[in-house]
Write a structure and sequence with these properties.
Blueprint (H helix, E strand, L loop, with lengths): L3 E5 L3 H11 L10 E5 L11 H15 L5 E11 L6 E2 L2 H16 L7 E11 L5 E12 L14 E3 L12 H7 L1 H15 L1
Parallel strand pairs: 1-2, 1-3
Antiparallel strand pairs: 3-4, 3-5, 5-6, 6-7
Length: 193
């Protein structure tokens, strides 16, 4: 029987995407089973993405049975014009002003460049915490494509052939996204263990 690893999320879209990213390569047996739990974790007010993720996984460890392998994921959108803001606060900005409001924030600024960053904090079966981070450069554009997944409709990655994340097929997005890069590092850790 393969061990179970818990992903702390209540977001069905995020869970589906992460299951795709951590799926074993064709012809290989899974080395773990991925489940999820929806734990309400505090949002640490900090500009360090690593510290925010570390705090969240520590909280999850304190709630789950001892010895449970668990990971959390936190994604930020960092505008060059704002020296990295809204960063980890993008979820709250998006909730308050929507995608159009995020775009309007950059009116008057010459650069629309941005960086999408995903930080994964994984606590292994012994409780040791590992941090993995993936980054994708791009720019902020007027909303295009589906609005089902946060700010995907306004982020056009440099490697995206002129499409926003929301306009891309999942398989294409998963080849270049910051989330796929962070989870590739987690996958390597899980499979090398």
């Amino acid at each position: 029987m393969v061990p179970t690893i818990v992903f702390v999320t209540g977001n069905a879209n995020k869970l589906k995407e992460v299951k795709m990213l951590l799926a074993p390569q064709a012809g290989k047996e899974p080395t773990f089973e991925l489940t999820n739990t929806d734990i309400d974790l505090d949002e640490l007010q900090n500009s360090s993405l690593e510290e925010i993720a570390r705090h969240k996984v520590s909280q999850a460890q304190s709630v789950l049975p001892k010895g449970t392998a668990v990971f959390v994921e936190d994604t930020a959108l960092c505008f060059d014009a704002f020296n990295g803001l809204p960063g980890a606060y993008v979820k709250w900005f998006l909730k308050s002003v929507g995608p159009e409001g995020l775009v309007r924030m950059l009116e008057g600024f010459e650069t629309k460049k941005a960086e999408a960053v995903t930080t994964v904090a994984f606590a292994d079966f012994e409780g040791q915490v590992h941090i993995f981070q993936g980054k994708t450069r791009g720019k902020i554009v007027q909303p295009r494509g589906s609005r089902d997944f946060g700010w995907d409709c306004i982020f056009e990655p440099e490697e995206g052939a002129g499409k926003t994340y929301a306009e891309m097929e999942k398989v294409d997005k998963n080849q270049i996204s910051q989330r796929s890069r962070a989870f590739a590092l987690l996958s390597k850790c899980l499979n090398d263990a």
